[in-house]
């Protein structure tokens, strides 16, 4: 009984693809751009025309008989053997050998040489993170094989102002309390350096967390760049840290009256203290990790058991 792969070793008729990751900014995929990418690739040696040496100098490897593989047979047990294929150690899987004195001086018998290649990468408007740009047949060259492809994978960097969500762009717009109550005019700088003016008329109140949008000012559609998504604006109202006491009556006259409440006789007066929710969450997480280490006998110490009678 035989175990293992007994199929004959076959070479692929096509070389391996080469994958490169390229970082792009949100501005570049919004506007479109052309980037130049320099890389090193294998090309057929023009000195020996990919033979690796002089004409007639290439001989079949006698160890593997030109297959590039060696077969090892191991006895596993009674009537059971295992057949294992490994790369030939003499020709390193090439299936042929060249006498050192006949080797090509340019490629040293490797049949290929390294060459610098400049690719022009066209990043079209609306392309997305992870999208692939294909350069057919521009991969490494090998004798008797079709060259593979070069595949450029886009890596879209985070933007400090804009966030992309599909075809939409999202932006946070801060406004002061006076602007939220009395109206505002704001300028939004687009990814192609245009200025958009947004306006709220006096009397139109903007609440903290309000969301509005501008049509056709989002990301351009790939292959259809004249169609764009939405620009979504999330409003953040900035409140003042304090108000001058003399200004309070003026504000009270402008704003709706405060609701009146009845305070029970037995009600207790409390003091409000500042509280940072994020800091408290970090402190609690740190404490939980410390407690877990203690339970496991780590840095927090060993767990103590009560004595039993």
TrEMBL record:
Annotated Gene Ontology cellular component terms: membrane
What one GO molecular function would you report for this record?
Hsp70 protein binding
A Pfam family name for this chain? DnaJ_C
Q: Output one GO BP term.
A: protein folding
Protein's membrane topology: Lipid-anchor
Record's superkingdom?
Eukaryota
Location of the CR-type domain: 32-116
The record's keywords, sorted A to Z, are: Acetylation, Lipoprotein, Membrane, Metal-binding, Methylation, Phosphoprotein, Repeat, Zinc, Zinc-finger
The record's section on Gene3D superfamilies has:
Heat shock protein DnaJ, cysteine-rich domain, Urease metallochaperone UreE, N-terminal domain
Q: Where are the zinc fingers (CR-type)?
A: 32-116
Which PANTHER family does this UniProt record tie to the protein?
DNAJ-LIKE-2, ISOFORM A-RELATED
The protein here is known as CR-type domain-containing protein
Q: Which organism is it from?
A: Aquatica leii
């Amino acid at each position: 009984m035989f175990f293992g792969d007994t199929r004959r070793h076959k070479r692929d008729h096509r070389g391996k693809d080469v994958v490169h990751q390229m970082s792009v900014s949100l501005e570049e995929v919004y506007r479109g751009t052309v980037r130049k990418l320099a890389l090193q690739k294998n090309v057929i040696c023009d000195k020996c025309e990919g033979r690796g040496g002089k004409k007639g100098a290439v001989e079949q490897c006698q160890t593997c008989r030109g297959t590039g593989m060696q077969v090892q047979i191991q006895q596993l047990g009674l009537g059971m053997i295992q057949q294992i294929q490994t790369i030939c150690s003499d020709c390193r899987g090439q299936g042929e050998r060249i006498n050192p004195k006949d080797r090509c001086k340019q490629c040293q018998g490797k049949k290929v040489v390294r060459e610098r290649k400049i690719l022009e990468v066209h990043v079209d408007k609306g392309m997305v993170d992870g999208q692939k740009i294909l350069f057919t047949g521009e991969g490494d060259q090998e004798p008797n094989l079709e060259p593979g492809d070069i595949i450029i994978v886009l890596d879209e960097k985070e933007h400090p102002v804009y966030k992309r969500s599909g075809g939409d762009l999202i932006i946070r717009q801060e406004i002061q309390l006076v602007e939220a109550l009395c109206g505002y005019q704001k300028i939004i700088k687009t990814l192609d350096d245009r200025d958009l003016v947004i306006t709220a008329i006096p009397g139109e109140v903007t609440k903290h967390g309000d969301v509005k949008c501008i049509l056709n000012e989002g990301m351009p559609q790939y292959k259809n760049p004249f169609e764009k998504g939405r620009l979504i604006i999330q409003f953040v109202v900035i409140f003042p840290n304090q108000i001058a006491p003399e200004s309070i009556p003026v504000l009270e006259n402008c704003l709706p009256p405060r609701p009146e409440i009845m305070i029970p006789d037995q009600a207790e007066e409390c003091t409000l203290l500042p509280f940072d929710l994020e800091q408290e969450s970090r402190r609690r997480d740190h404490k939980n990790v410390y407690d877990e280490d203690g339970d496991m006998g780590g840095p927090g110490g060993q767990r103590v058991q009560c004595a039993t009678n």
